[in-house]
Amino acid sequence: MILPPFLKAGDKVGVLSTSNYTEQKYIDELVSILKEWKLQPVLGKTIGARRGSFAGSDALRCNDLQQMLDNDQIRAVFETMGGYGIIRVIEQVNFNKFKYKPKWLVGYSDTTFLHSHVQGMLSTATIHGTMAADLEAGYHASSWESLRKALFGEPLEYHIKAHPLNREGKAEAILIGGTVSILCNAKGTMSEANTNGKILFLEEVGEKQFRLDSYLVSLKQAGKFKYLKGLLVGHLTDITEDDPPFGKTPEEIILDVVKDYDFPVCFGFPAGHSGVNKALVFGANAQLDVSGKGTTLRFIY
Q: Where is the LD-carboxypeptidase N-terminal domain (predicted)?
């Protein structure tokens, strides 16, 4: 995988939304954070634009992303909001210039489509990290600090407590992944994730238990777990029971889907749609060590 150049003080960075509309006050907070990092934020035309739930029309969102990708002065692009929308425009975006002059693309949730597309089509790393919209729930210093470290190329290593359902083992491989439902929806498209020989990160929000099971079973049938080196599970937020009850917790659903494989599994990694959202460098080499004492995830640049 290709790692874009890490940021340095004074760099210009783009701020846009290729998905849903973001309230201006959270954009203003993001701009303040970026300025504290000695970066120069450049706001895209989608900031302040709105059409229904989207940050402007498909054409506006596509063109905004295209201009940020093609602008040599922009060294990173921050998505401000997830939700839905990237799949509507991704096939119209021309990545030819980005291919030879890559830059960091930052976000999560719906940005999973962008991560998967860039890694699969262009073998280029991206960052799964917190966004402006997350500021609605408050400023989580550890989330933003981990994102700063990832962007500036500082050592990034995480230690988390052992989870009773973890499956012990070690793996070293490229880390990819994102939101389960979006990875599932990307199957058969240009943005489909190639999980062979990788460590896969998964998280999800706001789904029924049976629906989570259906996404995971679909990914299994597509061979997405067959050649994995390891599985890292983040926040499983607001995964609700149905009537009649499905009968399994979200963690049990995941373990059942991967029971035929022997790679290590870590639950409870602090990333995704709930509170703390630690940055992950998708496309970078990572060392995963899951033991009875806890889990260590270390990125190797």
A: 13-129
